[in-house]
Write a structure and sequence with these properties.
about 160 residues; mainly beta; Immunoglobulin-like; eleven-stranded mixed beta sheet; disordered N terminus; binds copper (II) ion
Length: about 160
């Protein structure tokens, strides 16, 4: 996993087949990639954090991300930052994320992000946060999210 992240891309298969049967191959019709995952380090007393990544649907069918889980937080939600009147911003919850075939969805500052609430321990720069993505068809995917500096703008490309 770590080596793949050094390349910036993790390939994964989203399929109903048993995992062992597909671990060495790409499925033709249900493929999603997760790229450029990152999060900012948090202050010691902070209870919230945002996680960003890019999802790409390489397959032929729609992919629905229906949930996210991190062991160190008690609540995880999909958020969207919305610009309001008078230059204010607020965040609203998105129940799920639908990715059409060929579509790329970027979670990034100022837009969609995964919000972690009630963090038990702060996110430390240089460490990795395992994040489990859950898809509608029942498949899970764990992404090792690199934790960057508190003022980072994103992973180096
Ligand atoms: Cu948020």
């Amino acid at each position: 996993m770590r080596k793949w992240f050094a390349l910036g891309i993790v390939f994964l298969n989203v399929t109903l087949w048993p995992l062992a049967a597909v671990s060495q191959q790409m499925t033709v019709d249900r493929d999603v990639t997760v790229e450029a995952a990152w999060a900012r380090a948090t202050a010691p007393d902070s209870k919230t954090a945002a996680v960003y990544f890019t999802l790409r649907n390489m397959g032929q069918s729609r992919i629905d991300l229906i949930g996210v889980r991190a062991d160190r937080a008690s609540i995880e939600t999909l958020h969207k930052t919305v610009n309001g009147a008078q230059g204010t911003t607020r965040m609203s919850a998105s129940p799920e994320l639908r990715i059409a075939p060929g579509q790329t969805v970027m979670l990034e500052p100022g837009g969609l992000h995964v919000m972690l609430l009630d963090l038990e321990t702060p996110l430390i720069e240089g460490k990795v946060l395992p994040l489990r993505l859950k898809f509608y068809d029942g498949d899970d995917l764990t992404v090792d999210v690199p934790i960057l500096a508190p003022d980072a703008d994103g992973p180096m490309r």
